Structures are given as structure tokens and as C-alpha cells.
């Protein structure tokens, strides 16, 4: 666990919601608007029904954005098979789903040895208790607030007790929420204990992404100054 440091507010737009034909331009636009990191959704068409992009696209983005923090959300079966490729492509944080791994401790070690941070996520139907034995191995825990696989879904408020439980147990760990997060529910997310905020449509499709990112960050900073 990432002990001995302060938990801070971090806003990461999900570029899956952007114009994928202009992925670099859209990524740069989000960073100019004040994004703290980029949330990159890798979907394999098996763990979730949708299919997005893989490590070749990540590597191209890394070449053009050498200093940006890439949080790779690996919605894939057998996430252990992707670690080396994503590390080579320039991923900073490898966030896999607990439901997809048969040996979470071994996978966490493999990710760490590759030089990346470890994120562990759970779907809405998975209890937060599944994460408790493994949190000491992680840098971040992710609570999905929609069913993973598609953008634009409605935020699931009933996931907040999971966030509260994790924050109570792990006060110095990054806790991320992903799915339907917007200015309308950011206060609830922050007050429940989330400090890493993934937001897709609400930011990417806004008339002023900078204004929305600022609004989201200020809400989280009230809880995590």
C-alpha cells in the first residue's frame, strides 16, 4: 500500500468518450484543460462485450505525450498476459479487474516488477470485501459506478457504500470511481472517499472541459485538500 503520503484530488478524463479518430489531439486537449492523468480503457471483447484499443495505440500516445500519467483500465480476460506489452507501451498504472484474475497477489507482483503501479478494480456486482485481502499490494482501488464496457451509462449511487468501506479501511490509498461521474454527483463521490475521479462524457463532451475539470477537482479538494 502507498503509505506515508498524502491522498490528493486527481481528475482523469476517459478518452474512450472522445473522437477516437483524433485520439492524440483529444488527449492533449484534456491535458490542456487541466487533467491530472489520462484514463485509457482497454477492452478485449471477452471480459466485456466491447472492443477498444490495445498496447500499440498506447505506445503511439506515449511517444507524443512523454510526461503524462497513463492509467490503463484493463477490462480483459487473463490480465496477466498483457502486463509486459502495456509496460513496454508506457503505461504508468495497470488497473485490472479482480474478477478476471485467478491469482491476484502474483499479478500484483508481476505489475510491480514491470515498473508500473497496481490498480485493482471491481464491477458493480462484486462486493468490496473481495478487495480487502489484496489492498496492501495495490496503489489504487477502483469501484466501478456503471457496468464496465460502454460509455455514457447512468451513475450508480448505490456503489458509494463500497467506496466508504474502502476509504475507512485504507485512508492513505488512492480510491477511484469510474462511470457516469459528473458535476451532479461529484460531491457524493468525494464525500464517500473517492479521490481519483474518472469522468468521460461529462468532461470530454462539455463546452468547456476546463470548467468541468476544475469543478470536479474543487469538489474533491474540499474533502482531500
Model description:
With 225 residues, this protein is of the alpha/beta class. The chain has one domain (10-223): TIM Barrel, CATH 3.20.20. 32% of the residues lie in helices and 18% in strands. It has eight helices and eight strands; from the N terminus they run βαβαβαβαββαβαβαα. It has an eight-stranded parallel β-sheet. Strand 6, helix 5 and strand 7 form a beta-alpha-beta unit. The longest helix is centred in the C-terminal third of the chain and has 15 residues, at 209-223. The protein is globular and about 40 Å long. The relative contact order is 0.17. The mean pLDDT is 95.
Taking the alpha carbons of the first and last residues, their distance comes to 21 Å
Number of domains: 1
Largest sheet: 8 strands, parallel
* CA-based shape: globular
Question: What do we call the CATH homologous superfamily?
Answer: Aldolase class I
Instruction: Write out the strand line-up for the largest beta sheet, numbering strands in chain order.
Output: 1-8-7-6-5-4-3-2
